[in-house]
Amino acid sequence: MTRRTATVQPGDGHALTPYRPWQLLTRSLFHLHLTDPAGAPRTWSVDVRHGGDDDGEVRAELYLDGLRHATATLPAAFPVPDGAIEVATSGYGLRRIHHVRHDGSVRQLVPDPASAEGWRARLDRNHPALSRALALASVSVLLVALVLGAPQIVEQLTAIPPVAQVIGPWTGPFRLPETANIALVVATIAASTERALRLRYSRILDGGFFSGGE
Fold it and tell me: Global pTM?
């Protein structure tokens, strides 16, 4: 993982709450089915509330067979049989939630069917052509935002007096009206959110000029 992972704390054993429809953009819930050393099937679940807890920290909660087993701030790596579950977020949702085995193999956890990620996965299975079109549209929007945003950022930076004294002011080839910039910001948020539902992340695209970074 790109950043140092947090210390894992033991859970308190409380039960996993069901996923609610109004949590589509604020909660991610994924599951992993493994066999324990005794050969018994177990279900590991990771619950992430993107709005954070009362202290403002976003945490991942790990559940074993529906009971809270551990918790950690993000990014986190939870030890589980035959490896660890690694969890990390971006500004728009999850960027990683994978079971990394001791042999180095990796597999993504399965989204809860009621979650936004579960809905997006069903769309990909049931309507692959539409899914590919949405994915292409998201990348296109982010590329346009990058191309249009970079000159405006550079122009703003060179307008700062200390910078202007060193390299001189620079005027970009175009300047978008405020309404167009607002529309582009909204479009990039939607595009990066769609990509986050598929656990796609690029530091250049999803952390770009109009999408706010991390």
Answer: 0.83
Residue 141: give the domain boundaries: 127-197
Q: Are residues 54 and 15 in the same domain?
A: yes
Spell 108-146 as b/e; 16+ CB within 10 A means b.
Answer: ebebbebbbbbebbeebeeeeeebeebbeebbebbeebb
Number of domains, the chain:
2
Q: Which helix (H) or strand (E) holds 87?
A: strand 83-90
- Residue whose entry in the numeric block shows the structure tokens 């990796």: 106
Residue type, 109: L
- Both structure tokens of 195: 């990509």
Helix (H) or strand (E) holding 170: none
pLDDT for residue 164: 60
- Mean pLDDT for all residues in the chain: 87
* Closest by Cα among 79, 80, 63, 61 to 71: 61
19 domain residue, yes or no? yes
- Do residue 86 and residue 40 come from a single domain? yes
The residue type found at 166 is V
| Last residue within a domain, chosen from 64, 82, 111 | 111
If one compares 181 and 40, the residue with the highest pLDDT of the two is 40
- Residue 211 in any domain: the answer is no
pLDDT number for residue 184 = 85
Q: What's the rounded Cα separation, in Å, for the pair 204 and 206?
A: 6
Q: Are 208 and 90 in contact (CB under 8 A)?
A: no
| More confident position, 56 or 131 | 131
